[in-house]
Amino acid sequence: VRYISATWPLHFNVICQLAAGTCEIVTLDRDSSQPRRTIARQTARCACKKGQIAGTTRARPACVDARIIKTKQWCEMLPCLEGEGCDLLINKSGWTCTQPGGRIKTTTVS
């Protein structure tokens, strides 16, 4: 749903509301200064339904069951791409996605 508001002198502001149960990426920063390593920081805005919270599904922001976040069972929200394996980090601070070729992507939650 999109709303447009106008003020005098005519300045138009477009105010976008997200549909319930959806998310959008607000910021995405990548740091490739270290060899063989890219650090990405992403901020998303979500409009989750009752009992849901912002999370990650198939490497995209998504609304997921709040229980998954509370219990830190990250792999239950299916954060990896199809064909990748998901494993919890030993201290439950995040997860790894392992591609069939052996490349590993690590995600930590802060």
UniProtKB/TrEMBL annotation:
Gene Ontology BP, a term: G protein-coupled receptor signaling pathway
GO molecular function: G protein-coupled receptor binding; receptor ligand activity
Pfam family, one: TAFA
An example Gene Ontology CC term for this record: extracellular space
Organism: Pelusios castaneus (West African mud turtle)
Protein name as annotated: TAFA chemokine like family member 5
PANTHER family: CHEMOKINE-LIKE PROTEIN TAFA-5, CHEMOKINE-LIKE PROTEIN TAFA-5-RELATED
Stated family: Belongs to the TAFA family.
Keywords, alphabetical: Signal
